[in-house]
Amino acid sequence: MGSVVDDEVGEIELGEEREREFDVEETIFVAVSKKVEESKTMLFWAIENFAGKRICVLHVHQPQFVAELTPTALANFALFPSVISVLCVAMPNGVLIESRFLKLVELKSKKAIFVCHEALTSCNVWFVCKGCLIYTRGGRKDKSDLEIAPPLLLLNSDMENELPENLESESLTDEPRFLDAEQGVHDLERISRSFSLQCSSHSSLSTDMLVGTSMLTSWPTHEEEKSQGQEAIGFYSRLEQVIRDAKSSKHREFEEAKALEDLCAKEMTQRKEIEEALTREKKEKERMKNQQDELMKELQMVQDQKSILEGRLEESKSTAQELEEKIISAVELLISFKEKRDRLRIEHGNAVAEVKKLSKLLNGEVSSFCSVQIPTFSFMEINELTHDFDPSRKIGEGRYGTVYRGILRHMHVAIKMLPSYGSQSQSDFQKEVEVLSRIRHPNLVTLIGTCPESRSLVYEYLKNGSLADHLACKDNTSPLSWQIRTQIVADICSALIFLHSNKPCIIHGNLKPSKVLLDANFVSKLGDLGIFRLIPQKEHPAYTTKLCNNLKGNSMYMDPEYLETGKLTPESDIYSFGILMLQILTGRPLLSVVKDVKCALENENFNGVLDFSAGDWPLEQAKQLAQLGLRCCEKHPLNRPDLVLEIWPLLEPMKASRVASASCLVSKKLHRIPSHFMCPIYQEVMTNPQIAADGYTYESEAIRGWFDSGHDTSPMTNLKLEHCKLVPNYALQNAILEWNQQL
Ligand SMILES: Nc1ncnc2c1ncn2[C@@H]1O[C@H](COP(=O)(O)OP(=O)(O)OP(=O)(O)O)[C@@H](O)[C@H]1O
Questions:
Q1: Which residues bind ATP (predicted)?
Q2: Ligand 1 and 15: CB distance under 6 A
Q3: 596, exposed or middle or buried, with CB in 10 Å at 0-12, 13-18, 19+?
Q4: CA–CA distance from 132 to each of 105, 129, 311, 429 (Å)?
Q5: Residues 462, 730, 692, 493, Cα dihedral to 10°
Q6: How many beta carbons lie within 10 A of that of residue 231, not counting itself?
Q7: Among 44-53, 105-114, 304-313, 696-705, where is mean pLDDT lowest?
Q8: How far is 687 from 675, CA to CA, in rounded Å?
Q9: Cα–Cα distance measured from residue 48 to residue 348, given in angstroms and rounded to the nearest whole number
């Protein structure tokens, strides 16, 4: 293969078949030119058109071209992966080896014509003009030509032998092979070394080559060949330099590539890290999103709760406002109450002071009044009216003394002889008597006077004796009617209410049938009031013994609570009152009366226990009384009924109806006398009633005797009368007359 470049060759015509003809295998292209630019153009043309082939460039006249060609050209060639090897050799004569492919036009250059004529017939010669192949001369292969083949051919043979095996094998394979630039440099280096060795150590060979060429061409001269050889040596030196430069360049590039690789690896690592970071960020973002969703839910819940709480807060505020208003009004009320309290305290203080003042005055008056109003009798008088304590005058005897009957200053009286004073002084006794004498009630036995000397009490005398005597039908007395019995219950209840409502509360403490006395009209009165205050019982052995002896019977009337604790209460009287009621209803023995009534009521056999000697009881009324009596007998005081609230409302209507039914009484003796017909002093039906200044009506003889004895007070109220004048009560007198006529 060979080519010659000459810009004097003449015009060329590129055959249309050129590209087709180039498309052959196993082509090694060699370009030769005198001009650098054309060589370059040729080289690039060859690279472009012979891709995948081995390319060799031979330069004849200008060795400096190689230096210019490399390393830039080499670097450019490296860009073409199909280029395997590039060899630049400066040849003195530009005789080429082989030519093919192109059609030629006529040659005009003398040099080209000369070459064409003088070149060995075995040579194929390519003529290139201005970078274009313009003519090809085919070579004939005969023995003579081979024998006189120029050293260049040998050189080319050597070159071919020196080519790396891989280049040979590469050309034989169909698949294109990419050879890196470094390998190309190695190849160049190796081939250059081979040429250098041949040029330096075999100068003769070089000479032979030149001679061979000159033989072929008979051109140029020896001197020229010598200078061309020197140029070739310089060229080779420069080539080596170029190779070194290329090597160092390659090394730098390798270093750079390595650095790039490291950079790339680093970048890959960084990318991996970034990807991992991105993955982490993605997960984090996902987690944040989930967290955000949860937070949003919580926020929603919190907002809901907030709205609920706000609602509650509003309610609380309104409630607080209401409460504040209430507090303000309460405070205002409190302030007004405090002011009121302060006023009341002042008034109370004034009242207390007034009371003290009045009580002082009153005490002085009372003492003077008592000394005057409560008659005190001498022992002689008591002795006289009892006929020296004649037993015939004796009407009874209890634990605290004997009771006598008598007439004192025209009045029937009962005198109770008390035991001796003991530790109690006469003055103390007198004070207690004065207190008791001030307690007045229609159903209480009136204390008329006293005899401190004999410690005796003078009471109004009640003609019909005690309830105990009537229940026992003592001295064959007729049984009391149910009306009188009902009336007695109501009267005793009335007396107890009066006593308990007193300030201080007065407790009878010994309520029983013997203490219920009946006047001439069978009006009942409670006697022996406050006797405990007058008798120092514990200090009197004789009476203590009597007390113990009689307690067995009397204890049935006593409040169990009192017997247990020794403390008297108003409920103690209620208990005794209950027993009294049950006895009045049934007349049964004291021991079994509670049990009998209870059983009868439970068995609905109340008739079996009722005392029918009292007549035909209104059964419901009697049952009510019995139930009331049982309640009064409850063991626990708090279970007993209240006198005012529960007992009295039941008894009051019975009391009212009693008067109406009194006319039904058979016995004239038991016939009820209207109480207002009775004289309060004599306790007898009046014949000449007179109205005194206190408004009460008295028997004329009785009230005048009261005044004559020095009294200027009311016998009923103990208050001082404005005057002592009397007015006849004719209306009452007529009524009494009328009533007497009906009997
Ligand atoms: N003012 C009075 N008018 C008429 N009779 C009275 C009067 N006071 C007492 N008697 C009669 O005298 C009796 C004796 O009464 P007294 O109060 O002394 O004893 P007691 O009640 O029988 O027993 P004790 O006082 O020991 O409980 C009574 O049963 C009563 O018949």
A1: 416
A2: no
A3: middle
A4: 12, 5, 102, 177
A5: 40
A6: 16
A7: 44-53
A8: 14
A9: 140
- Report whether 689 contacts 728 (CB < 8 A): yes
Q: Residue 459: CB within 6 Å of ligand 1?
A: yes
Give tens-digit pLDDT for 580-605.
Answer: 999 999 998 888 999 999 999 999 99
Task: Give the residue, by CA position, lying nearest to ligand 1 atom 11.
Answer: 396
Distance CA 669, CA 685 (A): 13
Three-state SS for 255? helix
State pLDDT tens for residues 124-176: 566 666 545 666 666 554 444 333 333 333 233 333 333 333 333 333 333 33
Is the Cα dihedral 116, 120, 121, 125 positive or negative? negative
With a 6 A CB cut-off, is 466 part of the ligand 1 pocket?
yes
- Is the minimum distance from the CB of 711 to ligand 1 under 6 angstroms? no
The answer to whether ipTM exceeds 0.85 is yes
Q: Which two tokens stand for residue 146?
A: 């081979």
Q: Which among 386, 399, 403 is the best mutation to test ligand 1's pocket, defined by most ligand atoms within 8 Å of the CB?
A: 403
DSSP state at residue 476: G
The response to whether residue 414 sits with its C-beta less than 6 Å from ligand 1 reads yes
Walk across the sheet containing 697-699 and list its strands: 697-699, 689-691, 727-728
- Whether 332 shows a pLDDT value over 60: the answer reads yes
Residue 678 DSSP symbol? B
* Strand ranges (E), 60-138: 86-90, 125-129, 132-137
- Largest separation between any pair of C-alpha atoms in the chain: 218
How many CA atoms lie within 13 Å of 51's alpha carbon, on the beta-carbon side? 9
Q: What is the pLDDT of residues 267-298, one digit of tens each?
A: 888 888 888 889 988 998 999 999 899 999 99
Q: Is the pLDDT of residue 479 over 50?
A: yes
Q: What is the pLDDT at residue 538?
A: 53
Separation of alpha carbons 698 and 692, rounded Å: 7
Among 415, 466, 555, residue to substitute to test ligand 1 (most atoms within 8 Å of Cβ)? 466
How long a stretch of residues is the chain?
743
pLDDT number for residue 477: 85
Instruction: Indicate the annotated binding residues for ATP.
Output: 416
The predicted pLDDT at position 186 comes to: 53
Average pLDDT score over residue span 40-46: 64
Residue 456 Cβ contacting ligand 1 at under 6 Å: no
Q: What is the pTM of this model?
A: 0.46
Amino acid at the residue 385: L
Q: Is 457 helix (H, G, I), strand (E, B) or coil?
A: strand
For the record, the structure tokens of 20 come out as: 């087709």
Binding site: what residues are annotated? 416
